[in-house]
Amino acid sequence: MAAEQLAQYLASGVVVGGIYALIGLGFVIVFGVTRIVNFAQGEFVMLGALGMAALGSQGMMPLAAFAVSVLGVAAVGAVLYRLAVHPLRHAPALAVLILTIGASIAIRGAALIVWGTDPLAVPAFSAGPPIVVAGAVVVRQGLWVLAVAAAAFVALWWFFTRTYAGAAVQACALNPRGARLMGIRVERVALLAWALAGALGATAGAVIAPITYATYDMGLILGLKGFVAAVLGGLVSPPAAIAGGFVLGVVESLAAGLVSSAYKDAVAFVVLVVVCLAQVLGALPWRVVAEET
Amino acid sequence: MHVVLATVLAALVLLGGAFGTAGAQEPYRLGAIFSITGPGSSLGIPERDTALMIEAEVNARGGVKGPDGRMHPLKLVIYDDASDETKAVLAAKKLIDEDRVTAIVGTTLSGTSLAILDTVQKAEVPLISCAAASRIVEPAAERRWVFKTPQSDQLIIGVLVDHLKAKGLKRVGWLNVDYAFGQLGWIEFEKATAAAGLAVVANEKFGQKDVDMTAQLTRVKAAGPEAVVVWSIPPSASIVTRNYADLGLRMPLFQSHGVGNKKYIELAAGAANGVVFPAGKLLVAEQLADDDPQKPILLAYAREFEAKYGPRNTFGGHAWDAVQLAVRALGKAGGDRAGVRAAIESTRNFVGISGVFDFSPTDHNGLDRRAATMIQIVDGRWKIAK
Amino acid sequence: MTARARGGALAAAAAVVAALPWAVESRYVLGMLVFIALNGLAAIGLSLVMGFAGQVSLGQAAFFAVGAYVSGVLTASCGWNGWAAMVVAVAAGALVAFVVGLPIFRLSGLLLAMGTLAFGIIVYYVLVNWASVTGGPSGLAGIPPLALGGFRFDTDARMLALAWGALLVVIAFTGNVVDSRIGRALRAIHGSEAAAAAVGIDTARLKVGVFALAGAITALGGALYAHYVTFINPSPFGFAYSVELLVMVVLGGVASIWGPVLGAAAVVLLVEGLRAALPLLTAAHGAAEYEIAVFGVLLMAFMIFLPSGLAGLARRAA
Question: Which chains touch B (3 or more CB pairs under 8 A)?
């Protein structure tokens, strides 16, 4: 099998991995601060994509459409937290999980009503033929995905390490009670976390829309894959989630190319099982999920 | 308290019963199950819109003239099965027992049609399916109450393979979506290419919601095919088409009849140019010879649909055929389920959108090879392929 | 619920189910009740895992599928007798759960949930791709209905009796398990696994045991489904169904025997109720698109106002 083929599998895998990493980050941030698995994260991605498509077709400049979509979905995340998640802060964790499931269904239903079932196309951020790197073809938008993902990671890193708000988020993630004792308003931080998750999801959606089109039901499987990426990274560690996303994308692509395309979508989950078991058997050098019940 | 409740309930039941017994202009009730949401929605929505269009048209004329010589309004009851088999079964039961329809049109997808076969056959209600699988109406002896309007996969694949052979394309690569539509296409393709002496050098699959098929296409490319066939519907069909162009693959690309809508061209943009696919004649109605019996019907439907709902679509055409067949049968037999079944079965030379139908006790699909033609996308438009 | 009260409730339910076909003719209503029973069986399986073993399973649909396919393939493709096939299907559900449970239950909490999620999805893809046995995406048709001599369970009324009969037997059985020593041990684990282990309870074995029992019960629901609809394909058994079962269990109230059945009824009735009600409230034919959004909103509202589910409500009212 030619080196070219292998290069292609890797290149495609890295681009898709960037998508998974961006989505996975949203899960990590919400889980870290509020200990909630947000089932609606995939729908934030979908809203970002559809927002981009809809605003773009109304004639808005891509940059403006991007900004409006991201801010809009951040607001959706914040509203979701305030109206639905916050009232359930004393409820059993399962109830909150079902709540986020209901939220994801409701958001999907709303998108269906507003935009219908047809996929919407979004023009690529920069026009031009695909780039060839070491025999592998990469579409320009794929490079945008990686660039935006990198920018998002850097922005998050700067936020967490250089700003007070970021430090507060980290504090809440590590020890909510301690954070509260230090005068941090945990509810405010949670609100910020959910808004941030919305923004990240929308960013992912907006940048991948030119590749994947925007459809009201695209959130499900993307959310699931992003979730796997986040779990691979521990659900509490952003850098590990990013790595998890890329690993997932590349493994998927290699499996489809080298083994069989039939089970491609199952690969992500086989990887998940393997990693989970590896942790139990003590074979992993890092902890996949922080120990807790 | 309970006595009051019981009385109110009883009163409601009686009232409901009273509404059941209608007067002289009893409407003819036709049920419909379409996939308005879920993976089948891009097919189901034009089907629903077409059905509504015909209902409005028929009622504007005063209704259906029944065997009793009187005009009966047409009442269409449409349910969404959300592309789910269990919901389709419940919808069918509801149409049969609660809404008391005379016949059912639909479903959109093969899986849901197969799921409701048992229900409609046991209840002895005629079903005119808008789904593709040949298994829906075969074996004919076990499908007394079931008919279908789309061309079967066997027919469509046959037209495609004939074309491939005529063009001298002997080594072919194949990709299909891992949904029933794709799998059934593969089953027929494998048989047809073997019979025609063509070699299938690659056979790959992808998921309905996959966002990138470059890995599969790279594998296909490595096998060195002279042509590539992809069997799926948008958006995955469009993504594959774009990947194909991005990877610089030059071999002729063939698609399925699932791409017979403007959406596919819109989404795949320039990459769709040159793609050839088999489909019903609706998309190239204007280019047909004037003596083609389907031409006037196709043009009329296309014009009407495009005025109200948007670009024409072969799936809407399947629903057109099904609803029109049902309406004609109602006109012949009235609100009698067995009579409608017999009327559909004895329909001959019915010029429809999907083709010219000739039903018989052994053929509940009624179409032949003339029902499909090869179409090429040229500059974003459909042209009959030579 | 005490054993006496449960016995009474079971007898009352059995009486209602036996009488129903005489009162209700509509195959639609009967069909809904059959699906409620089948979903109820699947949901009871899940609630055993969640309520009594305290673990979240996001892949329970896989056992439903195993039950449906094993019974379906044995009868449709291998010509087996329906009852024998169902027994094998139920055993298969237990076996698969046992085999999968052994490694997975070494994990806990979130990792365990992930493991079950992955398992459920992998089973789905196997069903889709192992076409030579399962028929692939286009499914398996021609599954014969169950029969006792000449008496075939091929009408909605008869399946109603069979499905609800099975459900009531399962409820009685699990009720006994819950009341037994095993049940107490399970509740100890649910309360605190460390404490239970400290008292000498073999937590690992019990959890896997419960998982296997749950797998068997859910598989029973799947097998009955196959013989009822007579056609199966992978698409109703995907991740979405696992989520739906989760919703049913939580809606009905975890750690309750009747809860899952209430939850199953709530979900089925809600979906069908929306189908009936929405056309009256919105433009007659544009309703289908609203069903999803309304369902989601109602689900959210339900969790906000009734976080302990319907069974919790019943307990409070009692």
Answer: A, C
